[in-house]
Design brief:
Elements lengths: L3 E5 L2 E3 L2 E3 L2 E5 H8 L5 H8 L7 H8 L3 E6 L6 E2 L2 E2 L1 H23 L6 H19 L1
Helix pairs in contact: 4-5
Length: about 130
């Protein structure tokens, strides 16, 4: 997978228009954290904006815009806003599907929707038992 986005924000500070931006590999962030981190601190750090500055407060008060650069992440961007929860859920689902594909291949099972549905049902059953 290669889900990349560009996040940016625009605000005014001391009469100057500030427009920091940052390109992110969402797959890498998901592998590192298991979820997407807050983007404001990443954007500030990449653009040398201190966490305890008035400039950072201005940055935090504005809404981030997201632009898809590559991957299916574009399906989770509506009106230049990233649906982070939707992306995270779909990313985890795709990871499970890849693991199921490997299991099906190892056990010489047909790699069709019925096989995936059965493996997904078994996974959900295991999740439910672990949660009870």
């Amino acid at each position: 997978m290669n889900n990349r986005i560009r996040i940016s924000i625009e605000f005014w500070f001391r009469g100057e228009r500030i427009n920091p931006m940052l390109e992110l590999n969402l797959d890498e962030l998901m592998r590192q954290h298991g979820r997407l981190p807050e983007f404001h601190p990443l954007l500030a750090k990449a653009n040398q904006i201190g966490n305890y500055s008035y400039e950072y407060e201005m940055l935090e008060a504005e809404t981030l815009t997201a632009t898809a650069l590559s991957g299916w992440v574009s399906e989770n961007i509506v009106d230049q806003m990233l649906d982070t929860k939707g992306f995270e859920q779909r990313w985890h689902q795709k990871q499970r599907q890849q693991q199921m594909l490997e299991i099906a291949h190892q056990h010489q099972l047909p790699q069709d929707q019925n096989t995936f549905d059965a493996l997904e049902a078994a996974f959900q059953l295991g999740q439910n038992k672990n949660n009870n």
